[in-house]
């Protein structure tokens, strides 16, 4: 700008046009023109042009010495074509994103510069601290995975049940502290069901989706800011361009997408006057599936090429969190004390033990057999996957060992969603015992 060079700042949503203009003016940059419909600030002579991606796709683009793409992970086709246009080959493009992990993003950008991670921004006071409760989650064992994500129709059937929706409302009443809340549903039917149940409980709730007219959406937002509306339920809408003081997130949409998950929780991480923390109520199982948002980050852009089994570009994949037995808060796996209720987590013995009583020999009475929980099975499968990757084995090896341990295959979606987790000594000893038993069996059969 000091050299009279024009800068284009492209945003993917109409709501972000006004937010960006306000942010620039707040920093003393008033020399702004807007490229979006017949906006009142339309002025092609200004050195900074805030443009909607949609308008740029339909118009001749203004000349510029620098282009900044906001929410770069959205990867609009028109933006990709623009970046590869030979006429713009000498113009630098800078992409901004809190989740720059989109598949193929590395085909359009050369380098990933990580200015700060979520945990660092929270520690520095730029983002709000948060606490997560995971009181319930749907049974997703019959929900298929299509192209790396849950099948939306089957997911809706699994989540849009009266008992689950009722539990969402009951948990908010107990844990939500009547805070301004965004609630995320699977689809329109699910989100509207959630809204209806909140209304029946006497909570002022409204619904928004992609088809809500802009004027009506703004009226809903005004009522939310004024405290008249306490909860906004939505589906696939309020993940970007949300300029609201949100102090509670209800996540009722299961996902396998780290980007969608982090963007969802991120809607509540903005700081505000009087805001001590964000409360997250996870009814989707996303934290147990993907981890805490402060633990999710990648070191490289995705080049679009298929990944090898077990390959991960995270600097150090943190173990998935666990749930506090006392209050259902999500806590880091290695944490000794729950920050929510102060409960001290007792270290678990690596040796299996079952309660029983002494019985007379020959009486025919036996101690009750230990029955592993679904969470213990999932944790064990994650440990097997870690060992498989460590030894260069296929994922099938982990499945076979799981079957050897429990007598059935790990076919349910929740178990199979377990990521590689550093194994305990107990698990490593079990694997070693199976190898020894296998070797002894071969020797007994005269094999070498």
UniProtKB/TrEMBL annotation:
<dbReference type="GO" id="GO:0003677">
    <property type="term" value="F:DNA binding"/>
</dbReference>
<dbReference type="Pfam" id="PF00271">
    <property type="entry name" value="Helicase_C"/>
</dbReference>
<dbReference type="GO" id="GO:0005524">
    <property type="term" value="F:ATP binding"/>
</dbReference>
<feature type="domain" description="Helicase ATP-binding">
    <location>
        <begin position="1"/>
        <end position="100"/>
    </location>
</feature>
<dbReference type="InterPro" id="IPR014001">
    <property type="entry name" value="Helicase_ATP-bd"/>
</dbReference>
<dbReference type="GO" id="GO:0005829">
    <property type="term" value="C:cytosol"/>
</dbReference>
<dbReference type="Pfam" id="PF04851">
    <property type="entry name" value="ResIII"/>
</dbReference>
<dbReference type="InterPro" id="IPR001650">
    <property type="entry name" value="Helicase_C-like"/>
</dbReference>
<dbReference type="GO" id="GO:0016787">
    <property type="term" value="F:hydrolase activity"/>
</dbReference>
<dbReference type="InterPro" id="IPR050742">
    <property type="entry name" value="Helicase_Restrict-Modif_Enz"/>
</dbReference>
<protein>
    <recommendedName>
        <fullName>Helicase ATP-binding domain-containing protein</fullName>
    </recommendedName>
</protein>
<dbReference type="InterPro" id="IPR006935">
    <property type="entry name" value="Helicase/UvrB_N"/>
</dbReference>
<dbReference type="InterPro" id="IPR027417">
    <property type="entry name" value="P-loop_NTPase"/>
</dbReference>
């Amino acid at each position: 700008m000091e050299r009279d060079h024009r800068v284009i700042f492209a945003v993917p949503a109409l709501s972000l046009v006004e937010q960006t203009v306000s942010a620039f003016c707040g920093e003393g940059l008033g020399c702004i023109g807007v490229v979006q419909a017949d906006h009142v600030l339309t002025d092609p002579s200004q050195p900074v042009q805030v443009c909607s991606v949609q308008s740029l796709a339909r118009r001749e683009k203004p000349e510029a010495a620098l282009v900044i793409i906001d929410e770069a992970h959205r990867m609009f086709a028109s933006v990709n074509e623009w970046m590869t246009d030979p006429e713009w080959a000498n113009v630098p493009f800078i992409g901004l994103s809190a989740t720059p992990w989109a598949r193929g993003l590395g085909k359009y950008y050369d380098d990933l510069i990580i200015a700060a991670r979520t945990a660092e921004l929270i520690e520095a006071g730029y983002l709000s601290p948060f606490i997560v409760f995971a009181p319930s989650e749907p049974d997703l064992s019959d929900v298929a995975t299509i192209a790396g994500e849950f099948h939306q129709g089957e997911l809706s059937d699994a989540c849009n049940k009266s008992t689950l929706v009722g539990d969402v409302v009951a948990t908010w009443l107990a844990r939500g502290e009547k805070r301004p809340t965004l609630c995320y549903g699977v689809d329109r039917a699910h989100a509207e069901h959630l809204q209806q149940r909140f209304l029946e409980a006497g909570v002022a709730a409204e619904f928004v989706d992609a088809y809500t007219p802009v004027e009506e959406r703004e009226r809903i937002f005004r009522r939310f800011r004024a405290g008249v509306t306490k909860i906004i339920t939505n589906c696939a809408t309020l993940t970007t361009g949300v300029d609201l003081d949100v102090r509670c997130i209800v996540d009722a949409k299961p996902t396998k997408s780290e980007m969608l998950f982090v963007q969802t929780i991120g809607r509540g991480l903005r700081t505000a006057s009087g805001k001590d923390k964000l409360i997250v109520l996870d009814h989707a199982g996303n934290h147990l599936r993907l981890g805490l948002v402060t633990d999710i980050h990648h070191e490289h852009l995705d080049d679009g090429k298929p990944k090898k089994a077990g390959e991960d570009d995270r600097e150090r994949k943190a173990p998935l969190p666990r749930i506090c037995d006392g209050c259902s808060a999500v806590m880091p796996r290695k944490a000794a004390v729950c920050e929510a209720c102060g409960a001290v987590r007792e270290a678990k013995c690596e040796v299996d033990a079952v309660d029983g009583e002494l019985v007379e020999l020959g009486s025919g009475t036996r101690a009750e057999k230990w029955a592993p929980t679904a969470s213990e099975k999932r944790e064990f499968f994650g440990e097997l996957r870690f060992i498989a990757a460590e030894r260069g084995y296929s994922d099938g090896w982990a499945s076979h060992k799981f079957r050897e341990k429990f007598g059935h295959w790990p076919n349910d979606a929740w178990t199979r969603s377990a990521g590689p987790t550093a194994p305990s000594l107990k698990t490593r000893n079990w694997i070693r015992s199976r190898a020894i038993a296998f070797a002894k069996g071969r020797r007994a059969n005269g094999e070498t």
